[in-house]
Amino acid sequence: MGTHHLKLALAAGGLMLMSACASTQTYREAPGSRSSGYTDTQIEANRYQVGYRLNKDNVAEAQSLALRRAAQLTLEKGFDTFEVVSQSTNRDSERTERYPSRDTVVERDCGLLACTTSVSRAPNDPFYDGIETERNTTVVVLEIVLSDKDASVSPSLYNASEVFANLSD
User: Fold this and answer.
1) What is the pLDDT of residues 97-108, one digit of tens each?
2) DSSP per residue over 101-160, as a string?
């Protein structure tokens, strides 16, 4: 009886772990224009546009991930600090409805001497309207300037090492 409870507890723990992993976004470069992930574009020598797209409605998470990418990019380029000079947020919701085609019904009726076959469409179901899906997206775009200025001299400057450490998994 003790091993049964242990197995049940392990199964429940595994299920909770899998559901927790499924609900978190992966920090990564966006593989496509409609995919979750970060993008960055160089505008000038030390000026970049950094964006993070989430395929869900969560502005705070998208902002944190965009700041994480800004800090990472700053460190990759050999700088210590960055300044956010502008920020934009776009939230979008897209609904789609799909109506699957009606099934074909084949009926075969056989009597004593012969069989008859009839083909018809399945009757319309008054309780079935189709399949509706909703896709939410949040995109945060930061324009940043990279520098080696001391972050303590201005509240608009971010210490890239601290930001990256605090916002990384």
Assistant:
1) 665 555 666 776
2) PPPEEEEEEE-SS-EEEEEEEPPP-TT---EEEEEEEEEEEEEEEEE-S-GGG-TTEEEH
